[in-house]
């Protein structure tokens, strides 16, 4: 008997989907409205927004908005049409690639339409079935999905654990000697959930002992870390040891698109083998010209990054001074770890949004272990000290309610259903 494919889907919506009736439209798929900024509108009221990755506040920077508008007026939304290899290539794309490569201290770069698809395709293009992948167990979903395409062997190592990394590197070395392949190591410059930098310097140092190539996803590090903003590798003084550097425009650049940078011969290879780009439309001129302006501001207005870090330090130090657990983040990503159930977390976030006008992201099981609530905040250059003080006061209030059982009692007495609120 052949089962109906949809039977399973209709009966089991998955670990997150099962909460859809209570969560959709409020906890997930919420509608933030108004200009992208530190304060936006949610369900008809103004909230302090800690849930967008506009690190440098470029989304509504007047120079950026001007260039975006001019590009839209000149080119429309479609130009250039077609994939890069066929008809979607321009001198502006080349200019942006050259400037990105210089900024991250690599020989060459190649533009990608989207970060997620780009990373999946980069991994697919770099390895064959004879090669071995070694990657951090906490890697972003785009890395996980890229590894899933790999037909050969792969090993995970414990998160940011160099002892575990070397142990798995030894296993990979033995395997590669058997298959006749090479080794690709993948990690992140900044882990977007916990906020730690990947241990790039320690990984690069092991190149003296083992033969491998290193691919780094630096989505959250690009523009926020390093003396010039070139990312986690620059911050740790090991940018030269990163063989393939990747970042997206969806964070510090406040746009759409991504890029990969490496030695010229590697980029030349990827240009002809990245399936996500070979068979997809070219990045439209609106985003290409807009990215040039954003990159220019990264280079010429260091005060944006300075303001970002002033806010990061004020928020994170304020939380630590009040006894909150923010883990060992050493980046802008600011997680706050609390103990509680998913229903308690839902009541808490509802309280934060409705009574304290604080909007942030909530992370629970299965993304993190059961019994833990992670409230994740992304400080930006547009936040103010008033925003930070209001948020710190709200955190003290919700912690008291969590610890005295208020949220547990409310969760037991009622189902928090705000999907139609």
UniProtKB/TrEMBL annotation:
Keywords: Acyltransferase, Aminotransferase, Pyridoxal phosphate, Transferase. Its cofactor is pyridoxal 5'-phosphate. InterPro entries: Aminotrans_II_pyridoxalP_BS, Aminotransferase_I/II_large, AON_synthase_class-II, PyrdxlP-dep_Trfase, PyrdxlP-dep_Trfase_major, PyrdxlP-dep_Trfase_small. It comes from Myroides odoratus. It comes from the Bacteria. Residues 46-393 form the Aminotransferase class I/classII large domain. Pfam families: Aminotran_1_2 (PF00155). Belongs to the class-II pyridoxal-phosphate-dependent aminotransferase family. This is Aminotransferase class I/II-fold pyridoxal phosphate-dependent enzyme. GO terms for molecular function: acyltransferase activity; pyridoxal phosphate binding; transaminase activity. The keyword Acyltransferase applies. Its EC number is 2.3.1.-. The keyword Transferase applies. Pathway: Lipid metabolism.
């Amino acid at each position: 008997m052949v089962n109906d494919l949809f039977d399973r889907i209709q009966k089991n919506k998955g670990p997150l989907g099962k909460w859809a009736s209570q969560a959709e439209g409020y906890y997930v798929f919420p509608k933030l409205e108004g200009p992208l900024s530190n304060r936006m509108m949610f369900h008809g009221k103004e909230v302090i927004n800690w849930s967008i990755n506009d690190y440098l506040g470029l989304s509504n920077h007047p120079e950026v908005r001007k260039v975006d508008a001019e590009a839209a007026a000149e080119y429309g939304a479609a130009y250039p049409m077609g994939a890069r290899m066929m008809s979607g290539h321009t001198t502006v794309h080349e200019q942006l690639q050259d400037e990105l490569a210089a900024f991250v201290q690599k020989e060459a770069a190649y533009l990608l339409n989207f970060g997620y698809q780009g990373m999946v395709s980069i991994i697919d293009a770099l390895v064959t079935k004879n090669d071995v992948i070694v990657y951090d167990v906490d890697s972003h979903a785009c890395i996980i999905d890229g590894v899933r395409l790999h037909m050969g062997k792969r090993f995970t190592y414990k998160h940011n654990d160099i002892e575990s990394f070397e142990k798995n590197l030894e296993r990979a070395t033995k395997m590669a000697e058997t298959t006749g392949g090479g080794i690709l190591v993948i990690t992140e410059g900044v882990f977007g959930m916990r906020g730690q930098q990947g241990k790039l310097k320690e990984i690069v140092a092991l190149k003296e002992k083992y033969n491998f190539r290193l691919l780094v996803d630096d989505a959250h590090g690009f523009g926020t870390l390093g003396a010039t903003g070139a990312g986690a590798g620059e911050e740790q003084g090991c940018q030269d040891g990163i063989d393939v550097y990747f970042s997206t425009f969806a964070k510090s650049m406040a746009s759409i698109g991504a890029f990969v940078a490496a030695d010229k011969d590697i980029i030349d290879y990827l240009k002809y083998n990245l399936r996500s780009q070979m068979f997809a439309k070219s990045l439209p001129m609106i985003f290409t010209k807009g990215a040039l302006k954003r990159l220019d501001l990264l280079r010429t207005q260091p005060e944006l990054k300075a303001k970002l870090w002033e806010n990061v330090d004020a928020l994170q130090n304020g939380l630590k001074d009040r006894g909150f657990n923010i883990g060992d983040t050493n980046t802008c990503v600011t997680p706050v770890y609390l103990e509680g159930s998913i229903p308690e977390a839902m009541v808490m976030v509802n309280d934060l949004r409705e009574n304290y006008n604080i909007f942030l992201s909530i992370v629970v099981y299965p993304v993190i272990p059961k019994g833990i609530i992670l409230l994740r905040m992304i400080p930006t250059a547009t936040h103010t000290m008033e925003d930070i003080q209001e948020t710190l006061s709200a955190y003290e209030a919700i912690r008291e309610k969590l610890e005295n059982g208020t949220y547990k009692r409310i969760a037991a007495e009622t189902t928090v259903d705000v999907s139609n609120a």
